[in-house]
Task: inverse folding
């Protein structure tokens, strides 16, 4: 798929500033284009599925600059990375743009040269798992080989250039015959995890541990961004069952266990950015969107203290800009939708909710 | 539909003022008269073949006697209720009967009633021929004597008007703009109503010819001379929108105008508080309407009254709804919104809303399941053997 480059004409809803670091309040409500070269590397697995379809249709990936993302980026710019990691939590009603804000921030982090650990949806790890293997490392835990190897593959795509630079500080023994020595590059570990599916969950655990240790280091130090979507899945219930039909608690899953260790703020040199998500969550009512409701007591205590970032529905200006963008891309084919009255109807029917608006415009 | 029976209470009150109400004493009064007594009340839309009813069941003297009995009974009833017999109207009679004979029946036509015999007994034709067997009317052998005599009368009047016009033309006083009969707000008699008037059946073709002839009469410039005759065959139309009760606007402490409305649809009831501040936010039972009605169709139903009048972003709404499913809740809220909007609109707009059907409550409810069938319409699977 070729993403063509056209001369960008001046328009009120687009901005030429494609670098998230340089965007500021004056760009609020405007769309910036993610450069095609970045697209596959930065976002192999992080974007919402409908947005991916839209990118394919429009032949370009445009993201709107919105207040929550700008706030996050400014926090990241000013944070002190010698102190324990700060945790940011994006929350809001369903469809208000939390995942997109997260992706915007991830783009910023990767352009700044951080190492990005993007977990697209934590709920995928607690439900619909076909294979549950008892863990070799720890007796009472369970492995999820397919999810772990998928994630490792995407991680490899995102952070190619880091894989050769980071060296392991510990020796890892996988089986009687296999082990990874100290001082080997991280890339080798990741490759081994991808090829040996049985031990991929343990590899994930090892990778996370290494990154945690080395993130704040002074020699060859890099910043680590942990971006977790749907973080409330880590503390709820799962739909998985053991062989004797008793339910599996999230702690008994290796992946979840290791990820929880990452989210604890006992390491420094990076940031944890998380979003709540009701859409994939299990056993949560559909009207819940506040942190207390979705995280539960346990989750809230683990995440506390965090910086809450509310994501609201489109403001008038943002709605205007979205509408103009769809018009520009010839997405609104119906002649009535191009009039003022049609716009008022769309405002009413969607109440300026981004996802509802997108679904509404899909058939116009 | 079976003929409904209304019992005339008037005939049960005897002249001697006996207050014993015995419904089965009908026949004792009338054994001299017709034996098989059928109290059949036929309304206008009853397709009863009046002409084919045969020889009259109730003779003239019988009807007269019934009228006398009714009047006396009316006076007795007025005395019983402690009211003035002179000014006792039919409405008073109905109320008194409903009070004295409370009925648990649902069908209005099955409840006890006391009405003037002309309304109770169907109009009948007196015997059309004399003792020698010779018919009275010259058009008897046409079969539809009243209809043809009416047509003849109408045509005679039309000819008379034309003759009058010719005379005026001869004198030179003919003007095109003579006073015309006003036909606004009235309609021609329906075929059933005409049949009731003429006490005989007419076909569709006959009815069409009659209307055609009347129109021809009306086309003449000087037809205002026959206005009374024409108006006898027209009925007034009621103006529907004047039946709408529009509540006045209320103002709360900040001076913001608000109004309430409620609506029902198929076991869902909803109430709406409409405020004139202006941002277009809607909350239903405390939650946002986008979350309460995830289906687009329900939100479109809510949008319809506002979009129709073009006031989309003007009102704030607080709604509460219960009962039914999501579609009927949306329909109930739509009706409630339209009713609440009435106080903000002018007369003409109210009329347009009514014509758009926004103010009509939807009468459809779940149809009853019948015995011997699986559902309301669905029959059990038919097995050949």
Result:
């Amino acid at each position: 798929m070729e993403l063509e480059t056209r001369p960008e004409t001046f328009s009120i809803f687009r901005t030429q500033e494609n670098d998230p670091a340089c965007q500021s309040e004056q760009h609020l409500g405007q769309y910036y284009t993610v450069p095609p070269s970045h697209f596959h590397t930065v976002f192999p697995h992080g974007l919402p599925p409908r947005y991916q379809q839209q990118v394919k249709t429009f032949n370009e990936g445009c993201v709107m600059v919105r207040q929550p993302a700008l706030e996050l980026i400014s926090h990241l710019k000013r944070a002190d990375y010698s102190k324990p990691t700060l945790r940011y939590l994006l929350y809001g009603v369903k469809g208000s743009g939390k995942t997109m804000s997260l992706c915007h921030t991830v783009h910023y982090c990767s352009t700044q040269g951080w190492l990005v650990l993007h977990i697209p949806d934590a709920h995928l790890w607690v439900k619909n798992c076909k294979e549950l293997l008892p863990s070799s490392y720890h007796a009472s835990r369970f492995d999820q080989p397919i999810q772990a190897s998928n994630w490792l593959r995407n991680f490899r795509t995102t952070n190619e250039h880091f894989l050769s630079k980071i060296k392991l500080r510990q020796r890892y023994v996988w089986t009687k015959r296999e082990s990874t020595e100290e001082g080997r590059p991280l890339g080798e570990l990741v490759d081994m995890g991808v090829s040996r599916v049985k031990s991929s969950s343990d590899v994930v655990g090892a990778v996370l541990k290494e990154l945690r240790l080395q993130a704040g280091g002074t020699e060859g130090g890099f910043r680590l961004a942990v971006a977790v979507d749907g973080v409330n899945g880590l503390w709820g219930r799962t739909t998985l069952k053991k062989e004797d039909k008793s339910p599996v608690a999230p702690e008994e899953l290796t992946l979840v266990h290791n990820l929880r260790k990452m989210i604890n703020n006992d390491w420094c040199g990076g940031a944890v950015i998380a979003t709540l998500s009701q859409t994939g969550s299990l056993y949560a009512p559909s009207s819940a969107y506040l942190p207390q409701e979705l995280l539960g007591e346990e989750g809230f205590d683990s995440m506390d203290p965090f910086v809450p970032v509310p994501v609201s529905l489109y403001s008038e200006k943002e709605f205007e800009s979205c509408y103009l963008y769809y018009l520009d891309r010839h997405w609104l084919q119906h002649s009535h939708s191009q009039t003022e009255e049609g716009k008022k109807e769309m405002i009413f029917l969607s109440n300026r909710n981004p996802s509802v608006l997108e679904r509404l415009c899909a058939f116009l | 539909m079976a003929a409904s029976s209304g019992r005339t209470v008037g005939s049960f009150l005897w002249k001697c003022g006996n207050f014993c109400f015995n419904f089965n004493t009908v026949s004792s009064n009338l054994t001299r008269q017709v034996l098989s007594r059928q109290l059949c009340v036929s309304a206008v839309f009853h397709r009863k073949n009046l002409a084919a009813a045969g020889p009259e069941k109730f003779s003239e003297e019988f009807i007269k006697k019934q009228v006398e009995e009714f009047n006396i009974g009316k006076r007795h009833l007025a005395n019983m209720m402690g009211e003035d017999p002179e000014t006792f109207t039919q409405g008073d009679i109905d109320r008194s009967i409903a009070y004295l004979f409370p009925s648990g029946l649902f069908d209005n036509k099955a409840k006890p009633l006391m009405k003037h015999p002309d309304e109770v007994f169907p109009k009948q034709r007196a015997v059309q021929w004399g003792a020698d067997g010779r018919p009275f009317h010259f058009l008897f052998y046409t079969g539809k004597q009243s209809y043809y005599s009416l047509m003849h009368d109408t045509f005679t009047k039309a000819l008379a008007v034309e003759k009058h016009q010719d005379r005026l033309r001869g004198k030179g006083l003919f003007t095109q703009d003579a006073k015309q009969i006003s036909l606004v707000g009235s309609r021609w008699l329906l075929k059933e109503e005409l049949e009731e008037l003429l006490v005989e059946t007419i076909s569709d073709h006959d009815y069409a010819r009659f209307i055609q002839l009347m129109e021809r009469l009306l086309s003449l410039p000087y037809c205002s001379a026959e206005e009374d005759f024409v108006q006898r065959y027209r009925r007034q139309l009621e103006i529907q929108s004047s039946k709408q009760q529009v509540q006045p606007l209320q103002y709360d402490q900040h001076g913001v105008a608000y109004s309430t409305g409620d609506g029902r649809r198929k076991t869902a009831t909803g109430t709406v508080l409409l405020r004139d501040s202006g941002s277009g936010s809607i909350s239903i039972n405390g939650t946002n309407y986008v979350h309460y009605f995830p289906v687009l169709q329900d939100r479109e139903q809510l949008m319809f009254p506002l979009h129709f009048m073009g006031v989309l972003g003007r009102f704030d709404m607080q709604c509460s709804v219960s009962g039914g499913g999501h579609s009927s809740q949306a329909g109930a809220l739509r009706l409630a919104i339209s009713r609440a909007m009435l106080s903000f609109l002018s007369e003409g707009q109210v009329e347009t809303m009514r014509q758009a059907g926004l103010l009509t409550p939807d009468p459809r409810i779940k149809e009853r399941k019948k015995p011997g069938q699986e559902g309301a319409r669905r029959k059990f699977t038919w097995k050949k053997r």
